[in-house]
Specification:
alpha/beta; Rossmann fold; 5 domains; 10 helices
Length: about 600
Amino acid sequence: MSILVPAAAFLALTIPVIIALYFLRIRRPTRIVPALNLWPDQIRDRQANVPWQRLRFGWLLLLQLLAAAVLVAAAAQPALSAGTSLARHSVVLLDVSASMQAKDVQASRLDEAKKQAGGIIDLLGPQDRMTVIAVGSSPRVLASVVGDRQALHRAVSDVSASNGSADLSAALALAAGLVRPGEDARAYLFSDGIVGPIRTDSASSLPFPVEYHPVGVSGENVGLTSLVVRTGAQSRAAYLHLQNFGQQARSFSLEWRADGHLVDVRKLTLAGGQAQDLVLPVPADATQVAAHIDAGDFFALDDTATAVAKTPRAFRVLLVTPGNVFLEQAISLRPDVQLDVVAPAAYKSTAPYAMSIFDRFAPPTLPNAPFIAIDPPAGSPLAGGAAIGIGRVRASDAGDPLLTNVDLQDVHIARSQDLQSSKFGRALITSAQTPLMLVRDEPFRQALFGFDLHESDLPLRIAFPILIQNLSEWILPPSVPSHSFHPDEPVTIVPEAGATSVTVVRPDGSRRSLAGGSVATFGDTGPTGLYTVEQVVSGQVTRSWFTVNLFSEQISQLKPADRLTLPPLRSTTGVQSLHRGQLEIWPWIALAALGIVVIEWLAFHRGL
């Protein structure tokens, strides 16, 4: 045991003061006399003139001395040596991602993590400091290098779970930035281990060790992982994917609604680990559809899925080609594109199109608008040098957003025009011999392919439709993307021409105003459900929609990780000089003193 405030021992002087008061106290004996004039004056006078009396035992004296002693002991703040070793600077990493809402432990995983983090806070010594970081899709510092236990407890108790993922790498990088070089520090991670990819290379090494405290016990869960509305020639239908991530069979009901109205109810049973795809009807006039299951599991966030059913505003796109099925199919995958295909001989430059695609054809005059040119014929303004053999291809910049999810490792090209001297724009796809594909932003967003798609295996790879999709959304970004986003994922909103105001109505009914007339990024997408974007154009309100759903198999699997592979400790850190924490017991002693004072008060009023 150690004493945190030794100076409080001076308060022990109150004990002899109490005893002295009892020495000086005049005790008048009780006498029964027939008249006051017979009062024994000599005894009264003697007691009044003698200051010191013989100390006599009394329960009140004993209780008062005991209360004073206990209060002095509480003021000195004794502390017991704790069993857990703490560093001078403790960093608490509290997982607040979606999976921490699971209720497979008392209240929820997050409540259990808060309880365990509170235990670490209670072990802080008077010279210790703590930083608390909430680990979500974007880590947040809840308390930075704080020694006040009450402030730390408040910071932990006030945090709530989000609907997003957990970026542990970003949280660790943030924590490392808050620790001074050479500082005695240690981190404590309270999580179920369901986190995003963790960088474990030497570049991301940490200046402190990390203790992982797993939270959660069960992986039993049934979730909806995908909901897509497809429009065919005759009708629309929704495709729903649901899966039992647990080991036990589950029976439940599925409710299917359109614009809030019940359309269908189905009874389903899924064995452990089984998945099922359902095709559900979509009314012709529906704006949004929603599926809900009543699985009765530990996790409710993935029991509901929402999708936009209304066809978005279409872009008219012209494809001029002598024949290219691969290109037609890739462009048609975008639901808001109305594609017109014409032969080169039938091309007319007067038709208004949002974007034109010229495949092995060059018009006499290039349109002053967005376009994609593929293998322009020799002699045209966009044509490059003589064709040369290529072979393997590679990305000019692997981090370019236009190449997101585009895998070029197994793509080969037989030959391509030499674009080395082209002034068209920057290279997106290149080779050892020459650039193969160029893009530019001015005067409009445009792209140039230097090779014939039929002289490559690119159209046979999954990379091709993804590349065309990325290009078309870059050249013609939809005003409001109608597909589903993940919680906390930013949404790019391009106001329609002439829009004076843009307002986003969230699923809970709250409204967020955006600047009209300029491209805006809306990031307040925490709640799941349907988001409505209202734009005022020429005095009229137009509405479009997008949805936010969990749709994460990693999170829906729900099973906690027993261990995590964390970044290594920096070799220059050395051995951490840890000290044993202290558990203060003075609040309990103060409570005991209060009890003694109450007993003394009762004894006084009973005449003891």
